[in-house]
Specification:
The chain has 9 helices and 8 strands. It is α/β, with parallel strands linked by helices. The chain has a single domain (3-271), classed as Metal-dependent hydrolases (TIM Barrel). Helix 1 (32-41) links the parallel strand 1 (3-7) and strand 2 (46-50). The longest helix is centred in the last third of the chain and has 16 residues, at 256-271.
Length: 273
């Protein structure tokens, strides 16, 4: 089974989705029916729907979509991990078994947020419910992220978008050093997603990404990497088929079993799909 471990769905709202102001292509509704033909053409059997808005309403929206669109195999929702009643809120959503984990948009937070006591308590609460946690950060947040991640050796964690390295300016040394330190912790996975938008939009070449792929493949190995598209955000800089084909080309000399892990079975195992 081929799984896209990272897609987003939304009904465009100009006020709520102000972050899209410089990305006109995103300023419309993107729903499961919008991507259906793309997934089919690319041989993708299912996807994980990841939150884009920080609200419980978003979590409900994604769980409702999953009820009528079986292509959604799992949901990564949002919940206020700082809430004093976090256990009760997690219990509230627990009957919705399509929810596999949660995410907070850490890339928008200051470094000190990572080590807030209330936030840490919320992340620690996920383990008792069997939930995963998606770590969404930029490359320059890797140092506080490393401290944060070290607090949860038994929690299933995944780095979204390879921690958004600075491909545009070809900066790699510090990112590579820190991503390797993070990968040394065996409970941490990494998504091969979101890299098109870290390069010069629509002016990249496949070779721009290979040095970064070399680093994460060496650091995480094929047991802890997952293919993801970051659709529809990917459309700002490229097409779905371009990213999937680029990864397939990169892995063409890998054994079939290892390709199957990266393109599906790792996501099935990590998210318990």
């Amino acid at each position: 089974m081929t799984i896209d471990a990272h897609v987003h769905f939304w009904k465009y709202d100009r006020k709520r989705d102000a972050w899209m102001d410089s990305m006109k292509v995103l300023q419309q509704d993107y729903l499961p029916e919008t991507i259906a033909s793309t997934l089919k053409r690319n041989g993708v059997d299912g996807c994980v729907a990841v939150q884009a808005d920080q609200s419980e309403l978003e979590t409900r929206f994604l769980t409702e979509l999953a009820k009528t669109h079986p292509v959604i195999k799992g949901v990564v929702g949002w919940i206020d991990l700082k809430a004093p009643d976090i256990e009760e809120r997690l219990q509230h959503f627990a009957p919705h078994t399509i929810i596999k984990g949660y995410r907070h948009i850490l890339q928008a937070e200051a470094p000190e947020f990572f080590l807030r006591e209330d936030f840490q308590r919320g992340v620690a609460a996920l383990k008792n419910f069997g939930y995963t946690y998606d770590v969404l950060i930029y490359h320059y947040q890797l140092k506080p992220a490393l401290k944060f991640i070290s607090l949860y050796p038994d929690q299933k964690l995944v780095i979204d978008h390879c921690a958004k390295p600075d491909i545009k300016d070809k900066e790699i040394t510090e990112w590579a050093k820190l991503i390797k330190e993070i990968a040394a912790q065996p409970n941490v996975y990494c998504k091969l997603s979101g890299l098109f938008t870290e390069a010069v939009w629509k002016e990249w070449s496949a070779g721009d990404f290979y040095p970064y792929l070399d680093v994460v493949f060496e650091a995480f190995g094929t047991d802890r990497l997952m293919f993801g598209s970051d659709w529809p955000v990917i459309l700002v800089s490229g097409m779905y088929v371009q990213w999937k084909s680029l990864l397939e080309k990169y892995m063409e000399n890998y054994p079939e079993e290892e390709r199957e892990k990266v393109f599906g079975s790792n996501a099935v195992q990590f998210y318990n799909l």
